[in-house]
Amino acid sequence: MGNPMRIRANATGDVVEVKALIRHDMETGQRKDSSGKAIPPHFIQTLTAKCNDKLVLDAQMGTSISKDPFLSFKFKGGAKGDKVTITWTDNKGDTRTDEAVIA
Amino acid sequence: MNQNRRDVLRISSVLGLALTAGLLKPSDVFAADWKANVFEAKTLEDAVKALGGDKFVVSKDITVNGPDIAENGAVVPVSVASAAPNTEFIAILVEKNPNPLSASFNIPAGTEAAVSTRVKMGGTSNVHALVKADGKWLIASKEIKVTLGGCGG
Asked: What is the pTM of this model?
């Protein structure tokens, strides 16, 4: 299990803006440690965002997304009080799901 | 034809086994699999081909926003928006990175065709936004200068 995400979802009219700060090392596999050994790649590969079980974003990531990825997007059809759930899976099979209530 | 059918059978049985063995949760199968061949593409053209497109056109409907000069190549904010109707897919590519594709997004109906994220850049490079809208591949680019030294310019 990774570290918890920070998710914020705000509704303006019928548009919900989601901002997510994910905590993950996003290791590229191209860096070396102090002894010269390559650090193995460790990065988020897939991410899905749902609003009340309806898919609102489906993303795939590579190694060149920054450490502690930030993501923001907007969707229609959400209302205050609805739940936004974000799930990611990394290349080592680790996964984490966090949710936020639309404010 | 036959071969296709066999492949479908084989893939579905392997997935079925993985499901029963508890290796995969149904939710994992639902999310699109990570496409290694797309992310391993070394050039923009290869990446487009791996995504299933053949040619792409430069479009004014696509906007790429980012800093003109990024002082820290490890954290470069990039946002992409598409005004093209029926945008279903957005990808962000950093031309001079070892693997240009940074991230791709499937945009379901109801979601606005605009995403922001932060990418790593190995150096000054064009950043491309590749969009699939109405079955066409559209592209827009922006050059972002990277000054790791942090003195700007």
From this structure: 0.82
